[in-house]
Amino acid sequence: MLSYWISIVLGIVEGLTEFLPVSSTGHMILTQALLGIPEDNEMLKIFEIVIQLGAIMAIVVLYWNRILRLFGLKKDPTRVGKKKLNLIHILIGIVPAGVVGLLFNNVVDKYLFNPKMVVISLIAGGILLILAEKSNAPKTAVELDDITYRQAFYIGLYQILSVVWPGFSRSGATIAGGMLSGVTRGASADFTFIMAVPLMFAASGLSILKSHEMFTMDIAGFFAVGFIVSFIVALLAVVTFIKLVSSIKLTYFAYYRFVVATLFALYFFVL
């Protein structure tokens, strides 16, 4: 079961979908089903956490200078005397989802983490993307440093959707939430990626601590391959998305989600 080609395939899927507004959860569930991997495979659940860390490390690399500025370890001469993004923005953005996640994580895993719910959330998330793109809300935050504390909080509230609704897409919810709150598409994406670092590190770290006894040397290679593949693919995916985000409308991702939801429904409920 734990072959390297499965590690590579799942690493590619995770890296491609984690930071795009298409739902990595939905894609991972569908991919595992197509590969014939049982839903209750505990080892694969831990593997998903490991490759998710690979994807988040790509964000750390890409936004390294920005992260250093957040902690005051690097100065930006172009922002002297001007408002700028700081750790309070990030904290405000992650607290709502963090609190809800801690309170309802077990409930979500037990009752909502299933194919039917993912199909519904893929469609609902796609509708939110379309609403965000069609919104005429004036964009008061053109760049990342223009985001206000209130906008950071609103984005954090939208992020809750991805916590309680598997398959909704964290990046999709927060990018759309940012646009509906008056933040441009590009600035919303940047904030989404940076905000993901502490939230995902915390969630992944907690899961790993709970399951640390499952990490043995005989699966180290399988995990390492998936981690590396996820890191490289996520790096390429995010770089491409950042370059194209100003010109690619969210509606295209919404239509893609509808197609995946249809395939999902056909596979699990018809075929």
UniProtKB/TrEMBL annotation:
GO annotations of cellular component type: plasma membrane
Q: Signal sequence: where? A: none
Q: How does it sit in the membrane?
A: Multi-pass membrane protein
Annotated GO MF terms: undecaprenyl-diphosphatase activity
EC annotation from Swiss-Prot or TrEMBL:
3.6.1.27
Principal EC category: hydrolase
InterPro entries recorded for this chain? UppP
Where it sits in the cell: the answer is: Cell membrane
This protein's UniProt keywords: Antibiotic resistance, Cell membrane, Cell shape, Cell wall biogenesis/degradation, Hydrolase, Membrane, Peptidoglycan synthesis, Transmembrane, Transmembrane helix
Under catalytic activity, the entry for this protein gives:
di-trans,octa-cis-undecaprenyl diphosphate + H2O = di-trans,octa-cis-undecaprenyl phosphate + phosphate + H(+)
Transmembrane stretches in the record are 46-64, 85-105, 111-131, 152-168, 188-209, 221-242, 254-270
Could you give a single Gene Ontology term from the biological process aspect? cell wall organization
What the protein does? Answer: Catalyzes the dephosphorylation of undecaprenyl diphosphate (UPP). Confers resistance to bacitracin.
Miscellaneous comment text of the record: Bacitracin is thought to be involved in the inhibition of peptidoglycan synthesis by sequestering undecaprenyl diphosphate, thereby reducing the pool of lipid carrier available.
| Family recorded in the similarity comment | Belongs to the UppP family.
Q: What is this protein identified as?
A: Undecaprenyl-diphosphatase
Q: What is the lineage of its organism?
A: Bacteria, Bacillati, Bacillota, Bacilli, Bacillales
